Every structure is written in structure tokens, then in C-alpha cells.
Task: structure prediction
Amino acid sequence: MRPLRRRPLLVSAPLCALAVLAAGPTTADGESGDVPGISAQVARLYEDVSVATRQYEDGRREAVAQRARAQRAEELLARERQEIGVLHGDLGRIARAQYRQGGGLPYTAQMLLADSPEELMRGQRAVWQADLAVNNAVSKSRRAEARLAADEAKAAAEWQALEKRNGELAEVKQTIEAKLDEARSTLQGQADASVAAGSCRGAVQLDQPGTRSTRAWVAPVESYELSASFGSGGERWANRHTGQDFAVPIGTPVRSVAAGRVVRVSCGGPFGIEIVVKHVNGYCTQYAHLAAVTVDQGEQVSPGQWIGQSGTSGNSTGPHLHFEVRVTPDMGTAVDPVPWLAEHGVEL
Result:
């Protein structure tokens, strides 16, 4: 199983993701159906979701840092409370000592009964030192209590900010997921209708990625988990599995793995909506169970170009891309796509 690889899959800020959908579906050139423009809408939402996802992750990391700051503030408060306890103890000891000595009276008596200026000065210093000790202890205790009150307010504000941030992140995530699920459902509904009618809706117009691949060969999707592999057996297939499945959500942009020409666009049969591309080396690649296509038969494509959107059309148990490598455009000529792609520098 390959870990998910993330790309800037597509969201301006959370508000941008919501604004795209709040504005309602827009028409994409060349697209028809009950809900015009849904393919383009899903693609744009994927674009928005990538940005929102990055912002969500930034916010999550900030929330973690904020929690650490709040915990450090709590630790500081605990130390300050201990220090105040010590100060209060010191004040108690000074007060008890003053009480046992009759407050300032013994020192006053010493000054009144002093026989020499030196003895008088000693008495004055004793009074001054006693008063200074009391005043210093009281002042220090008051400063510590004021600092504690300020730090308690700061810690409370940190926790409140953290709770607010967590709430905002949860709301953004839920909203994005709900809107994207709704758009995916609509897109898949159109795909199912096309397969049932055995007639494709035609290529939808999508804004291609801002930067085209500089590599001659790429993976058919950018973020994925590998699922059923070539040659797998089971009740789902009459014979052995003839391709490599990529578990991806409905509407994920599907890319041509290399330059070539689209030799087939089909919307019926067990593969549902499918595309077959013939490459310059003579081999063909198939992309099946799609929700939409963005190319027409006979069209030339480049490496990494979006040629469709993943779905779960045809005989499919869930959203994924079924990818095959064939010697000819037809069924029955498939080879294992994983080592074949590896030979062309694409490690899955």
C-alpha cells in the first residue's frame, strides 16, 4: 500500500471553496446534462480544496502550538501559586515575630533608654530594618498576586482562542466535505445516466493544471492508494483482474501517463465510462470507471494532461480508477502496469 501523496489539490481559502458552490453550477463549454458544468465545478472545487486543506493544516499546527502555549501558561501559574504560598508563609512568620516582640515597642524602648548615640542609631536601624522587611514582603506578595491574576487571564484567553480555532477548523472541514460530497454525487449521477443510455455526454472543458509535467511518464493520478492489483482473483471478476486499481474519490483528475492519441471513448459495458490512449511506443493505456471525460476520440494528449475524472461507473464496487496497459487497444492484451510503469521511471 502506498501512502497518500498530496498535491495542491485545489482550494482557495475555506471561504473560496464555499463561494464556488454558493454561486451555483456554471456551464462548461461543450458539456450537456441536467446539471451543466458540474464536472468543471468539481474540478474547481478540488482546486479550492487543496488551498483550504493547506490552510486547514496550517490552522491545525497553529492550534497545536497554541495548546502548547496554554499548557506552558498553566505550568507558570502553578509555579507562581507556589511562590505566593511561600510569600504568604514569610509574611506569617514576620507577623508572628513582630507580635512576640510587641511590634515596634521593644525597639522604641531601646531608643528611649539609649545611653549613647551609637546605641540610639542601632535602635533606629533595627526599627528601619523591621519595617523594611515587612514592607518588602508585602510588596513582593502583592506583585506576585497581580502577576498571577494577569497570567491567569492570559491562560484563560489562550484556551478560549484554542477552542475557537478548533471549532472554526471543524466547521470548515465539515462544510468542504459536505459540498464536495454533494458535487461528487451529482457528477456520478450524470455518469450513471450516460452509461445506462450507452451514450457519452461529450468532453467537458476543464482548466488544466497550471504547470504541465516536465516528465515523459507520470502516474495516472497524483494522490492515491493502490487497491486491487493485476492478476488478482475474486468474485468481482470473471477472470483475473486485468489492471491496477487506484483508490481515489469521485471527481479526482485523471492524467494521461504519457503523450499519445485518444483512440477510444466509451460509455457502456462493464468498464463504464472509459478512455483508451495509444502511445508512441505502441502500447495503449486504459482509464476506466470514470465519472467524466475531458478529451474527444482522436485528440492528441500530453504527459500529465487531465483526460477525465475518476468515478465508479460500470461494474464498480466503489470510487476508483481502473488502469490498464495493453499491447493493443482491445481487451485481452493487458500486461502488469506496475512494472511496466517502473520501466518508464514511474514508481507506484
